[in-house]
UniProtKB/TrEMBL annotation:
InterPro entries: CHAP_dom. It holds the Pfam family CHAP. Residues 96-224 form the Peptidase C51 domain. This is CHAP domain-containing protein. It comes from Sphaerisporangium dianthi.
Length: 227
């Protein structure tokens, strides 16, 4: 059976339960999660709320960094793996020491120490962007759902794969924001219904280059790159 550590939030926010032969999980944030039915009014409300939040911050600036440069850095991390406790990477250490960790703990509850062995695919994406000074356009988060909503709030969300785009996955094929459980970068559209990606926390906790089917993709966030 294929298993995956769902959602990039501290593990003390994950509640697992069994339904038949399936192990399911949901993030506990103190409020009920929206139903996974992707109805248009609910989706519109989510995007409207995200846009309102984004309006409080400056517009994402254009940086003199290309998508190719970002992907080169991301691909250099291939082979890095977590320790036996599910942590121990430089991505964990960086996120825990960043000011953003305090903000996301305040938002999601938990503790900064909880990030030490948390699912880290979004920490990887955030680390790559920040190393190149792109934190304002790639975003920084450890929770994939919130990160996707952030892109939507900045009018940088869509369904077209582009090199350097941040791709959000639901392995069960869900298409709502709350279905998102994994994230990475698009390397290219293979033109056959699949995309080539570079991802952290995949295949047992490694940075790897993968091929993913379009059926697993919820959507894409588009950073602002130099031409």
């Amino acid at each position: 059976m294929f298993t995956h550590r769902l959602l990039d939030a501290p593990k003390n926010q994950l509640k697992a339960f069994t339904l038949g032969s399936l192990v399911l999980a949901q993030v506990v944030t103190g409020t009920a999660l929206a139903a996974h039915a992707d109805t248009s009014p609910a989706k519109d409300n989510v995007i409207a709320a995200a846009r309102e939040e984004a309006a409080k911050t400056a517009k994402m600036p254009s940086r003199q960094v290309s998508a190719e440069q970002l992907l080169a850095l991301a691909e250099k991390q291939v082979g890095i793996s977590e320790n036996g406790s599910g942590g121990g990477t430089k991505f964990h250490a960086w996120y825990m020491s960043s000011p953003r960790a305090k903000e996301t703990v305040a938002r999601d509850t938990g503790t900064i120490a909880g990030y030490a062995d948390a699912a880290w695919c979004d920490m990887f994406v955030s680390w790559v962007g920040t190393q190149l000074g792109l934190q304002d356009t790639v975003g920084t988060d450890a929770y994939t759902v919130a990160h996707a909503k952030w892109f939507a709030g900045h009018d940088r969300w869509g369904t077209t794969p582009k090199p350097g785009a941040v791709v959000f996955f639901s392995f069960n094929g869900g298409k709502s924001f709350d279905d998102i459980e994994h994230v990475g970068f698009v390397i290219k559209d293979n033109g056959d219904g699949t995309i080539k990606t570079v991802e952290g926390n995949t295949d047992g906790g490694k940075v790897e280059i993968r091929t993913r089917p379009a059926s697993q993709i919820v959507g894409y966030g588009y950073p602002s790159y130099a031409a």
